[in-house]
Amino acid sequence: MTRKDPTPTEHDLEHGEVLAPRYDAAGLICAVATHADTGEVLMVAWMNAEALRLTLETREVWYFSRSRNELWHKGATSGQIQDLVEARIDCDQDVVLLSVRPRGDGGACHTGARSCFYRVIKNGRLAPR
Question: pTM for this structure?
Fold first, then answer.
């Protein structure tokens, strides 16, 4: 990047050291949380700039709830706080990948399941995994 143009170039985004998340029109970026020890996908949620900042600063994961239209500290009420082990961002900086260790009973889903992906689609119907 040059001093005259603070907007990251495609090369900067893909190969540089500048963190420049590309939020959507609603100011959100997709966040995928995986278990740090197993690699299992636990959940997919959304983050706004404040949620990402708080996550990186506190090392506890924050999201933005689209349904409640508010910042959400994962586990604040359920006890399923997610401790951040590592944060990555994809090549064009529009998806965040979080490696986390859940506290509490180890669940991530509001249903109490370990992962939000606890069902498979078989013949057009849902079945337990």
Answer: 0.88
